[in-house]
Prior knowledge:
CATH architecture of the largest domain: 3-Layer(aba) Sandwich
CATH class of the largest domain: Alpha Beta
Oligomer: single chain
Low-confidence stretches: none
Strand order of the largest sheet: 1-5-4-2-3-6
Distance between the termini: 31 Å
Number of domains: 3
Amino acid sequence: MSKRSYFGTDGIRGRANSHPMTAEVALRVGLAAGKLFRSGSDRRQLVVIGKDTRLSGYMIEPALVAGFTSMGMDVRLFGPLPTPAVAMMTRSMRADLGVMISASHNAFHDNGIKLFGPDGYKLSDEREAEIEAHMDEGLQEGLVGPSELGRVKRIDDAQARYVEIIKATFPRDLNLNGLRVVIDCANGAAYKVAPTVLYELGAEVKPIGVSPDGFNINEECGSTHTATMKRAVKEYRADIGIALDGDADRVIICDENGHVVDGDQIMAIIACAFAEKDRLKGGGVVATVMSNLGLERFLGAKGIKLERTPVGDRYVMARMREGGFNVGGEQSGHLILSDFSTTGDGMIAALQVLAVMRRTGKPMSALARQFEPVPQKLENVKFAKGGEPLKNEKVISAIADAEARLNGSGRILVRPSGTEPLIRIMAEGDDEALVNQLVSEIAGAVKQAAA
């Protein structure tokens, strides 16, 4: 496939009001997608749109609406709603397309556009390429007549519908009565729905990060800044802390002592609970190449395989669909439980962990460390755009030498970043000193090659 101009690994993303995250590009997305989805159909098409709490959402949303309606598509607006909720509602409302306006865990000055098909899954690379093919056409091409313009309505009960869907994923025979829960909503899309879900299931809820002002999304709060959640857990003497990111498709947890539980540990908790009840499908779990070797060994000892994919939730989801898996995710807390959702959903994952706490009667601290992580070292090395340090003989030799010295007791992963001119170097193994040394040596070789 040729290099794409607009779409990256997770939709279109960039700095607000700078290319490609401008009102004009948003308008072109609406026009192009409207043209594509309308072709060959004799019925009126429907698109649903959700967003997070960024100021720039007020610019992007009306531009998208103008594009879709001028192509004859009807539009339904949800307002602030998590990414997974938009995916669910696309399917449940029988829409032809779902759109989420968000830059996920990024700061407020970024924004993004993600597209979902009628099945609730992110659009395929091929479908995105078809939209791109139309995006640079003239703005006047293919517009419908005045009587065929689309209509726009706001869906006032979208949040309430999502709350009910989420509550239904929690076991009916359990409740959260007597549990004190800190929920950090990152001043993002879940600031209303997440505390409501926990309260209605019986918890005593201590919400933080629920005062969005357009600028403070993910700012020193949420899953990328866990210190705020940890402080609140200690202050309120809570039983558990739950931190979502700006669009609520990621979750990081901490126990009652403030110890952080990352995506790998959460996957281990859920996979084991599912396996015990014979609910784990595909015979294992799908994770990325970044997941800790300790997770792989832990699951392997229980007869559960770990399948690895490249970094990115779309690759995890693709492998899950191919192999019939129902648990997958990333160390970052992007967890996909496909029995319930077509994309990562932080609240669904958190509720499954709370169900294990309830079912076992154990405190979170007793569940938090399912396995001992293998020492892991990461280093990023910048290189000049256009350079290819990974083809350098000395770099190739340094990687081969490092793998030989690990001698099967760990892993080396050296890869270019998908978004920046960086080489990402990761090593893990039982000998921490050796791991650190190997990363340092490979980084040195890359720096020389990049010089």
